Amino acid sequence: MKKLVVLSGAGMSAESGINTFRDTGGLWEQYSVEEVATPEGYRRDPELVTRFYNERRKQLLQVEPNRGHELLAELEKEFDVTVVTQNVDNLHERAGSSRVIHLHGELTKVCSSRDPNNPHYIKELSPDEFDINIGDLAGDGTQLRPFIVWFGEAVPMIETAIRYVEQADLFVIIGTSMNVYPAAGLLNYVGYGVPVYLIDPNPVDVHASRKIHVIRKGASAGMAELIKTLCTKGAL
Asked: Which of 70, 119, 146, 236 could make an SS bond with 53 (beta carbons 3.0 to 4.6 A apart)?
C-alpha cells in the first residue's frame, strides 16, 4: 500500500462544532494564550486552566466526527494512512483512523505536572472523569494537569511525525493555517516529487515553493473532492 500522510488542524474539526482558536469568535478572543496555554499561566492560576480544559472535554461529548473525518478513515482501505494532527480532540480516532499522532497532546488525557511526558503518569479519562479538580493527583503525587503541549513547551511527537512524513507517497494538509511551528515545518520533509494537496476554504500561505494542489473547500467537501481526484488519476 502507498503511504498517505495527512497533517490536520483546527479546520478539520470545525464542521463538527469544535471551537477553533484563531477564527473570528474563536477561543483566543475569549481567553488569552498566556492565561490558558502556557506553563506560566498554569503556574499562575492552575484552577482557571483546569476549568478551561474541563470545558473543552465536555464539548467533546456534544460533537461527532464529520464526513471529512470519516472519509479519511475510509482511505485506510486503499492506503497506509498516518494522521498527524495539531488537534487535541479524539474525532479522528472516533471516526476510525487507526494511526493518529497528536502533536499538541490529547484532551482526554491528564498527566503529571512535574513530568508531563512520563508515560507512567499519563491517564486516559473516561467521560465520567472529565472534570479534574485541584487536589486530584498523578501517580508521582503532583497535581494532574492537561496532557496538552502548551506554547513554550517541546513537541515530543515531532520526530515521530517527521519519520512518517519522509516516507510519504502522498501528503495532504487539511484545515491548518500553517502558522504554528514545528507542525508547519513538516512540509519541508515531504520527498521531492511527492504530490501535496491542501484542503482549506481560506487562503493558506504554506511558505513553500513546491507545487501544491489546492482544494478551496471545507474538510468534508474537500475530502470528497480529493477522493474524486485520486480516482481520476488512478491513485485509487
From this structure: 146
